[in-house]
Amino acid sequence: MWKKLLAQTILLLIIFFSIFFVYKIYFKKENIIETKVEEEKLIEFKKNTKIVSDVDSNLIEDLQYISEDSLGNEYIIRSEYSELNLDNVDIISMKNVNAKITMINSDPMFVTSEFAEYNNKTYETIFTDNVVINYLDSKIMCEKFKISIENNFAYVSDGVIYENLKTKLEADTIEIDLITKNSKIFMKNENKKIKIFNK
After folding, report:
1. Span 46-198: which CATH code?
2. Alpha-carbon distance 111 to 94, whole Å?
3. Within 13 Å, how many C-alpha atoms sit on residue 130's CB side?
4. 86 and 58 in contact (C-beta within 8 Å)?
5. What is the pLDDT of residues 22-77, one digit of tens each?
6. Beta strand pairing status for 125-135 and 74-84?
7. Domain boundaries, given as residue ranges, for the chain
């Protein structure tokens, strides 16, 4: 009787240890830091995109986003270096940036800047530091350019210089409706005047 009970106890212990070791070997999850990305936010990377991760940040080299809204407006933005915001995965901080923005029934606008903050959900982007905007024969230089494709609105500010083939203009701010192409140019200080030079 005791031998039978001892044999059953040993058999049960062997089964429990087997289950424990199988679980440890095959089902143990490793601690991996993951960034949750929604399926609809999947992005097109260049083939040579490199992700360099450390404890504090997620750095990406040669990043490219391509997006198109339901109206057919296309937005392409590239950066030499980018950093994912770990607190808000929708926000990407970019360095050495260039972008091509093509609104429906319109010629493309090209933008370069040293830095940008891009929202990959709304496509709203704030370009900063040595911003250059080229559209047809027009060129705008400034320190800050905010564009919202969702709201069809752009805001140019801080040391604005506008040039075309015939005119040069200096102002504080230009607001642009991306659909109608209507713009409003003004100075923040009402006592200062917009400067216009003929070439």
Report:
1. 2.60.450.10
2. 13
3. 8
4. yes
5. 455 544 443 333 333 333 333 443 333 444 444 445 778 888 888 887 778 888 99
6. unpaired
7. 46-198
